[in-house]
């Protein structure tokens, strides 16, 4: 197997899961801020 191709595949996978993690954190922040402001008002 070509190790360069493998490394690129692994990098792509890490990149995808990292973006998913950022998206999840963003959604949690949005939901949290929404409920938080609702409690204050």
Automatic annotation (TrEMBL):
In terms of superkingdom, the source organism counts as Bacteria
Name of the molecule in the record: Uncharacterized protein
Which organism is the protein's source?
Levilactobacillus brevis
Mind giving the lineage of the organism this protein is from? Bacteria, Bacillati, Bacillota, Bacilli, Lactobacillales
């Amino acid at each position: 197997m070509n190790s360069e191709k493998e490394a690129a595949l692994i990098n792509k996978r890490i990149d995808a899961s990292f973006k998913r993690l950022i998206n999840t954190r963003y959604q949690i922040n949005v939901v949290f801020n929404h409920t938080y402001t609702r409690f204050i008002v």
